[in-house]
Automatic annotation (TrEMBL):
Residues 8-106 form the HTH hxlR-type domain. Keywords: DNA-binding, Transcription, Transcription regulation. This is HTH hxlR-type domain-containing protein. PROSITE patterns: HTH_HXLR. It comes from Oceanobacillus neutriphilus.
Amino acid sequence: MYQEESPCHYRRALEVVSSKWTVLVFYELEQETLRYSNLLQRIEGITKKMLTQTLRQLERDGLVHRHEYETVPPAVDYSLTSLGLTLIEPMRVLHRWTDAHYDSVLESRRKFDSAQEHQNNPKKN
């Protein structure tokens, strides 16, 4: 089913890569071509249904190539397409940012939550 595309460039980009599962699939396929079962084992917490949906969407977007071997049972490999490979560097930049700054995000959350808790439950003297 075709869905009308957003006119906003940022929104369109986020629609492609906004799922955490998409990013994790990319990290796994960056190094090598993998079978479905290998992806399922390597991506902690992903369900079969979610992996299947993620791979189908990535294939639809032209970012992942699916190669089915005519064996019994059928074997399927997944790899990044040349278009998919163009997303590796932006994802690496985000990964580096996370490594450098995520502790600050966590500290900000802690301070915010503490201030909210204090505001909602002031101590009586």
